[in-house]
């Protein structure tokens, strides 16, 4: 998710190692405007440059969380699961990654639920497990432990950038979580436009009940 407070909304270009990718420069602002009934939280992991032609645009990259205003946010935690905030550029791969965990109270149902999400680190070598990904999983579980009381529903989701056999899922299983993506028999989480191997990246895990 991108946010550029000093730029107008519209398209920009992200450049990295010969790649040029179109990006909505103020996607956070655009989604916030489309969801007026939601509280919006932006959680930056790094600040770097996008481009409008040859003109540089300073932008923040990170997570966004949108919560319907009918739900009360009764606790939350935000922290890095890999690296630390990069204020002077996107950083070297694998770049900083954070996670956001919130505890919501549903007045309609009279109970609370804890939800955590993460955009896992990207390694140019692929999605196989590394020591950094193992530490990332442990950091995510630790962050959840700060908020989740253990006796109510827990949801953990995101683009983890790992394969289904990752040790990440064994770490999360200790919290009683099981994955709905692989557990439901889905064979990938990519569209037909994605031509590379390793077609899993996005996951949704829940506790029973």
From TrEMBL:
<dbReference type="Pfam" id="PF03372">
    <property type="entry name" value="Exo_endo_phos"/>
</dbReference>
<protein>
    <submittedName>
        <fullName>Hypothetical conserved protein</fullName>
    </submittedName>
</protein>
<dbReference type="InterPro" id="IPR036691">
    <property type="entry name" value="Endo/exonu/phosph_ase_sf"/>
</dbReference>
<dbReference type="GO" id="GO:0003824">
    <property type="term" value="F:catalytic activity"/>
</dbReference>
<feature type="domain" description="Endonuclease/exonuclease/phosphatase">
    <location>
        <begin position="110"/>
        <end position="208"/>
    </location>
</feature>
<dbReference type="InterPro" id="IPR005135">
    <property type="entry name" value="Endo/exonuclease/phosphatase"/>
</dbReference>
